[in-house]
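Budget justification aside, the reviewers requested a transparent look at the raw inputs and outputs of the sequence design task funded under Objective 1. We therefore reproduce one unedited record. The lines immediately below are the structure tokens for a 375-residue chain.
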């Protein structure tokens, strides 16, 4: 199986919408083969541990960056950060209000143990879309993370800087550069004050905004809690293969944004190896659709989003990806959803959707109604 097939296979770890992405050749990764230089690198997987808990937020945002503007607006609010993958990933929920309006968002931070770097993904509740990540690391107590984006039709560089992380008042700044990083203009400043070092479910829900319900936003409510999952994977899709491998594991799904988003973690084992993944599901209230992204524990990189919606008790999500050098359609479907079980299938099509070959089947059975995994 080539790498692209492995990526797709990991995207499907459970039928409860704990969407996941296949591990990139787990059996091929051998930590014992690392070079001496790699072993001496800083293991940064705990560099964001300072963020766990509940915080008061004071935000200053420049209204019109890279235009010469000196007009700033201010917001106050709350953020809550909880642990994922035993600390090698984390989720922050962020909500503030001010004279310029309301901001509700989240940041998913994932750690890549191979590169010793973090990827920081931001999404807001207005469109439920994850932006390209900022990637970087901490050095001498300072965290710097870089990425690219467009602003007013021009390509710009973006820099995140974390400082004062060894105190109860961490400081964050975002800056833009339009000259390749020669000069930077700060446009977002956040100062945090710790409220609690715990990030329990009750604190999260009590501190965040109770948004109005919208059509479709509760389509994945069935998935919250803990599940046993049984997975069957076709080894060589679109190649005439009839060889399947099986996994057994557990999935946990937690609510975000009062149900307009959720985060799931899945671990499963079988003869073909160990799977560990997370899934981030975000609801777009304008399109009334869900966007699904996945990451695995080896690379910590989010996948391209699949989009779709629920209809008459069945939900289907589609995207296009390359397999064996060809562009194919990918379909993910949940069905037979009850209070105690559900069924998931992934299928590929190489003829524009005329025919589909199923390559991933998962059946889940509920263990607990609440997402009781340790925060």
């Amino acid at each position: 199986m080539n790498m692209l097939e492995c990526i797709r296979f990991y995207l499907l770890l459970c039928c409860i919408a704990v969407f996941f992405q296949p591990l990139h050749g787990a059996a091929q990764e051998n930590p014992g083969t690392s070079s001496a230089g790699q072993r001496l690198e800083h293991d940064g997987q705990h560099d964001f541990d300072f963020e766990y808990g509940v915080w008061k937020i004071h935000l200053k945002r420049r209204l019109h960056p890279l235009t010469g503007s000196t007009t700033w607006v201010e917001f106050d609010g709350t953020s809550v950060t909880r642990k994922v993958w035993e600390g090698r990933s984390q989720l922050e929920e962020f909500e503030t209000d001010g004279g310029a309006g309301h901001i509700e968002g989240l940041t998913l931070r994932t750690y890549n143990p191979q590169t010793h770097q973090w990827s920081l993904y931001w999404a807001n509740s207005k469109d439920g879309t994850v932006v390209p990540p900022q990637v970087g690391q901490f050095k001498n107590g300072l965290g710097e993370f870089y990425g690219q984006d467009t602003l007013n039709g021009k390509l710009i560089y973006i820099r995140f800087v974390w400082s004062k992380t060894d105190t109860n008042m961490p400081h964050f700044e975002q800056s833009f550069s339009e000259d390749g990083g020669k000069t930077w203009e700060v446009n977002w400043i956040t100062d945090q004050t710790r409220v609690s070092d715990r990030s329990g479910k009750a604190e999260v829900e009590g501190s965040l905004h109770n948004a109005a319900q919208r059509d479709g936003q509760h389509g994945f409510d069935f998935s919250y809690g803990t599940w046993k999952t049984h997975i069957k994977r076709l080894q060589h899709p679109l190649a005439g293969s009839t060889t399947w491998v099986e996994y057994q594991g557990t999935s946990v799904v937690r609510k975000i944004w009062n149900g307009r988003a959720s985060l799931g973690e899945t671990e499963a084992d079988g003869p073909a190896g160990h799977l560990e993944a997370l899934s981030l599901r975000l609801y777009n209230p304008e399109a009334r659709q869900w966007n699904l992204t996945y990451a695995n524990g080896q690379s910590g990189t989010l996948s391209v989003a699949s989009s779709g919606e629920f209809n008459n008790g069945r939900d289907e999500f589609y995207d296009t990806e390359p397999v064996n050098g060809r562009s194919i359609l990918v379909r993910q479907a949940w069905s037979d959803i009850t209070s105690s079980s559900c069924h998931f299938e992934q299928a590929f099509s190489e003829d524009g959707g005329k025919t589909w070959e199923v390559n991933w089947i998962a059946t889940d059975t509920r263990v607990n109604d609440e997402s009781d995994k340790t925060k």
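The domain at 49-202 is CATH 2.40.128.20 (Lipocalin). Confidence is low (pLDDT under 50) at residues 1-39, 200-214. Computational costs for records of this kind are itemized in the attached budget.
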